[in-house]
Design brief:
about 20% helix; alpha+beta; 5-stranded mixed sheet; 7-stranded parallel sheet
Amino acid sequence: MKTLCSISFLLLAIVSAPGAEAFLGPIPVQYVAPDKELVLDMHRFYQPAGKPDLQFTTKDDVDLAFDAASLQLRARVHGRGLFDVALRDRTAASILTIATEAGSSAHHFVFKPTDRRTKVFLAGSFNGWSADKTPMTGPNEAGEYVVDLALAPGRCSYKFVVDGKWVRDPANSETEDNGMGDKNSVVTVAAENKTEGPTIYADELGGNELSIRAASTISIVRVSAVLESEMASNSISAKIDNGKIDIEVPEKRVGFVRVIAAANNGNPTNVMRVAIGGTTSVSFPNFARDRARPSNFHWQDAVMYYAFTDRFSDGDKSNDKPVDDANVLPPANFHGGDLRGVREKIDNGYFESLGVNTVWVAPLNRNPAKAYREYPEPHRWYTGYHGYWPVSSTDIDPHIGTDKDLHALVDDAHKHGMKVIADLVLHHVHEEHPWWKEHRDWFGSLDLPDGKKNLRLWDEQQFTTWFEPYLPSFDFAKDAPVHALIDNSIWWLNTYKLDGFRLDAVKHILPSFWWKFRAALREKAKQPFYLVGETFKDRQGIDQFVGPNMLDGQFDFPLYDQIKDTFALTKGDFKALDDALTSSEKTYGKETLMSPLIGNHDKGRFMAYADGDLPDPKIDKEEEVGWEKPPKIDDADNYKKLELAQAFLMSIDGVPMIYYGDEFGMTGAGDPDNRRDMRFGDQLSPNEQRVLENFKKLGAIRKAHPALRGGSRRTVQCDHDVYAFVRAYLDDRVAVIFNRGKTEAKIDIEVSPEMGDGDYNDGFNIADGRLQGTIPAQTARFIAKAK
């Protein structure tokens, strides 16, 4: 028996403009253990038209409840398998698919204080960094405080809160930088040993018939097939026939068919997503605008490059005006890079040669004309060369150019079929900004009730902390600053025809801001756009800001951490990387445009880790390593580690981000040493030239193979030094193989049924479904049929 529930509730905070249509975007498959509760924040997917009017239809084996005040949907499933829930508002519909899987693993946390009269709490990404949500029990006979907590597989960052003071775990040497100059303790939770479901892949799409096959003899017993478009997602019928899934695609529909199946052992398969209706990309375009302005560009086909403007290319010497202040050392001053320099590299084909089709530029706003002293020791002086200290909401910083330069950059990019996104600073302004002078009530207080300064309390005061005393943070609970920031963002987007934003410090801005931000851009932006955010959290913390009604994606820092460990530091075996990648794929889903990366302006350079300069056993802060002993490459063989990481980056889903200089192996410690001046042409060493040429080949390979950008992925070998997976998307099939070892590796892997027998590139041959051969030491290979 099916039940129908309808809940309507007036909530002033989420009332849309009169006459606006409800929005209910595609929801990625959600995973939950049987009889465990799934809590889904529908703000990420749902924008009501006035009163929330969410209705749902389900079966008796799923208990559902919707709280209109918080827009939380709670679900609890009984039994194993797949469960589809039809959600709808008056003008929009979507399908929530729930897949059951094994539960989280328990981890035992222990802290032993010096004073037994102590209150100890555990805080971390698992509880929103709450200082009092997770108490630790103690002291026991050993004087320890303990707590057992169920955690999802992967890396988990945490701290102890001891009598109100936040401290790292003294018994755990494993730490990770939180991106803001501090470190958290980190523990890696292994995935439970369990039988995985089979891999399914898109085999054929002919006319209105889509054929999905399973790469396994395990029987498929249930299928969820959903037709996804911009404003509606609906279930469509699927027929299981001897290991195949046949789907009849509705005529004259543009969008995607998303498929997940369950095997007879109850385990879910991977998710497969296929473009239909003339959409040749595996991305999720903005359909309405794409029909009005046809384009071959779709965001999941993007490769993004961060041209850190001041350090990238100097195209106009007349604006080279560093701050004249003896306190400022050269690495912290303006270096002369500008918008004209970026445009010249677009025009001369530099980005195109790399396979890059999206350029990210640093914040555009004018910054202060003098230097300021950093709050933490040793209190160094910096200028606003980076762009993150806005003193104007409309002026372009004269160090990087003029409004004409920005118009010319965007126009030239579009003529070359490229996109431009700009860094956007929303969390704060500089104290010289007129808004701080005229609207003090828009901002939070620097002083906490206990007299402590609310400075750099990244986790304790996540949504209110200031980064510096001269960078006042907005109070995002107030309407006036929220409206002003949204209106100003739309002005930048439309005035300069930008294609999206990289959004700074996402986790320090209330989630309510982001769904208001997305709803306004959806209504008022004049072109399709991509919103990618920066959040230094675990996957669950990152994911809470992602969805069609919030951000399109974020940088996948948890995966970055494992890429660094596997390739640069050569820690452990490839299973940790495979587990991390699988966790990212399942957490974010095929609909989400996450951005994987191997370098970032807040992290030490990949080559500094690969060559042994980071981490430094004697200097805790990576920033200080850059000042005291700047890294240089001592062993040219370590460039091979970078080439392996580059190959991995270009072989997985998402919008890979290239941090300038990583295409040839620039080194550097923490900020600002990781922001050295870019080099081109004969400024590169022979080894750097070789790495650059190899990366150009990787860009061409990714562009040629849609399977690498959104196909199925089946791991076929995963041991200490050799890792291989097969990717398939309709008639495109690629085997990707990595040999991290320092000796040649013999390969004998099962690549059938995705890849048929015959001759392949690089002299490889497949016979009886097996790919056999050798892979040279420290290399990666992409094996595919020649086209």
